[in-house]
Amino acid sequence: MHPLNQRLFDLSRRGFLRGAPSVAAIAALTGTVAQGVWAQPVFRTYPFTLGVASGEPLPDGVVIWTRLAPEPMAGGGMPMRAVEVGWEVASDDRFRTVVQRGTTLARPELGHSVHVEVAGLQPGRHYWYRFKAGAELSATGRTKTAPAAGAAPEKLRFATAGCQRYEDGHFTAWGHLAGEELDFVFHYGDYIYEYRARRGAERPVREIVGDEIHTITDYRNRYALYKQDADLAAAHAAHPFLVSYDDHEVDNNWAGGISEEDGGAAFPVAVPPEIFAFRKQMALQAWWENAPLRRAALPRGTDIIAYRRLRYGNLAEVNVLDTRQFRDDQPCGDGVKAGCAARLDPNTQILGAAQERWLMEGLAASPARWNILAQQVSVMQRGFGSAPNIAYSMDKWDAYAAARDRLLRHVHDRRVPNLVVLTGDVHNAWAGTLKLNFDDASSPTVGTEFIATSISATGDGSESRADWAQVQANNPHIGYYNNRRGYLVNEATSERMVAHFRGVDFVSRPGAPVVTKASFAVAAGEPKLVRI
Ligand code: FE
Ligand code: CA
User: Fold this and answer.
1) What is the pTM of this model?
2) I need a labelling partner for 467 at 20 to 30 A (CA). Which of 51, 213, 232, 522 fits?
C-alpha cells in the first residue's frame, strides 16, 4: 500500500474504531442559532459512526457526505430536529491550508445525512475534508476533482465494485481498494441486500438482524450496519465514488414499478405496483441519504434521475446508467431460461425511451477517446447449456436483446470510438467483446465489456466453473471468467485501456491478500482483448 493511502486507511480506521481525532485540531466553527435548529449539539456517543464519503467529481468540485448516527442500528438515534454540521476542505491532509469551510444542516427528514456540493476547487487534484458537529470531529476523507474540461490527462485510473453482501463475507476487497491509486470508484450497486437474516442451517459469515427490509428505518439500519465496516469506510475515505444502484437496494430483481413478487410462477401472489411504490420510495430515499450524491438525484416520490454523465478531460466520458428504474418487467420472467421469444421483442425497454435517447445522443456527440458505460447488468450475450437449448439469464440485457442491438448498432453506425462497458451483478468476473451480432463470430466488434466480481456476495468462490469449456464454445466473444471475490481496476491512456481483475481467495475470514487474477489491454481503435 502507498504510504499516503496507508495513513488514510489507518486514520479512517482510527476515526471509526476509537473515536475522532483531537477536537483541538479543528478551529471552532461558529454557526447561527435559529429556531428548531440544534447549533451546538452534545452527543452521548460518537455521532460519526458511518464514516465520510465523497463523490460526483467535477473539475471544480465534489460532493462530501456524512450522516449523524450516534445509535446507528436504532434509526440513527438523533433528536427529531435539524442539527448544524460544520465542514472543511483542505489542500493538505493536516488541514494546514483550509481552502473552504462552511456549515450545513443535517435534517431529520433525510436521516441526518449531510451532502455538501463543494464548488470552486482546482481541477485534477486531491483534497481532504472532514465534518464537525458540536465538539465531535469526523474521520478525514480524501477526494479528487476531475481534470479541467478539454484537458488531456495522461492517465485515468478507476475501479468498479459492488455486490457487498454483509452476511456472505468480509469486505477485505474494499480495504485493498482503499490502497489503490484511483481517480474514482464506480459502485454499480447492491450496496446493501434487503434479505432477512439467515436462519438455522444457513450459516452466515457475519450476523445480520431482522426480517426482509421494507420501511425507511429498516433500510437506514441496514445501510448503517454496512457502513460501520472499516474496510468499506476506508475505501470511501480514500476515493470519490460514483454510486449507482441495482436491484438489492430496493428488492431482488425489481423492474420499473414492479416488485420481485410480480405474480409470475415464482411469486404467484403479486405485490400491487401501487403498494410496491411505498417500499421503493423509502428504499430510494435511504439510498440517496447514504451516498455522496448531488441534489439532482434526490428522489421525488418514486421518481429518481440517477443516470448522468461525467467527463475526464478529453480522455474519457463516463455514462452512469440506470438499468432498473425505467425497464419493463423481465419479459421472460426471472432465472436462466431457454426458448423464450419475448426476449427479442423490440418494444421491451431496459433503459426506457428517454434515457436511451440521452445516451445515444451523448455517445454520438462525445469528443472523448474512451466512451464508458458504467452500469449494472451484463450487456454481452452469455449463452448457457448446449444447442439448440441455449439459455440466457433473464434479468440482464440478454432478456432485452432488441434494446441491446439498437444501442450497439448505434455505436457502430455513428462510429462511437472505444466503447467500454463496466458491469457487475453476476458475482463473478468476466471479460468479453461486444458484437453487432453475437451469434456470428465474423460480425463487427463494437466495444468491450468488463464485469467486476462481487466484493463478498456468494462467499469464497472458486477459480473457475465446471461448464467453462461449454460457455466458451457457446460464446466465442467471452475471454475470461473467475469466481473469486474482488474488484476491477481500469487504467486508460490515449493509447490503451488496461483492466486488472483483482481478487481475494477468501472472505469467510478476514485478512486475505489481494491477487491480480488477470490483466487485459484493449488498444484504442481496436476492440479486442489482449491478455497481458
Ligand atoms: Fe448482487
Ligand atoms: Ca443485482
Assistant:
1) 0.93
2) 522
